[in-house]
Amino acid sequence: KKFFSGNWSLTHATRSTRVTDSTVCRDYDLKMHDNGTIEAMYGYNENRCGNPYDVHCYGTQNSSRKDEFNFDCHLHNDREEKMDTHIDAYFLATDYDTFCVVYRCVTTKEYFEDNLFILFRPNKTDEDYAKVLVENYGLTMDDILARKDATCAKS
């Protein structure tokens, strides 16, 4: 429950077709409801092209895997475009206060994608520790998009 309260900033993500600089600019607002449902809200500006999306996700812990959480997400933008996605998030490592490593799989009608995400609490990013985490999963910083290298719009 401690993890699912407050804000987390996505600071590092493995590269893929749909993960861009705008992805690592996301700040997640998490809340756990009394019934165990987790609400995650965030926004992003698709490829910084003036097409901002608001995203609301609702999920629960998987009953057979305690590290897996299953979310249904609803995306919409000012152009009245809407999309639904399903995200399976596997929480690989966290200290609950500072950092978190998540393996996430996104499924829509059109595609499937998986990525490793590293999140830190706002203003607590530790680049040296992020590198240790990345290398722990057999990757290098060349495999990663980092927020420090992205141009994030002010929210």
From TrEMBL:
Keyword Zinc attributed: no
SUPFAM superfamilies reported for this sequence: Lipocalins
Family annotation (Pfam families): Triabin
A GO molecular-function annotation: toxin activity
Keyword ATP-binding among record annotations: no
Gene Ontology BP term (one): symbiont-mediated perturbation of host defenses
Protein name: Salivary lipocalin
Species this chain originates from: Triatoma matogrossensis
Organismal lineage: Eukaryota, Metazoa, Ecdysozoa, Arthropoda, Hexapoda
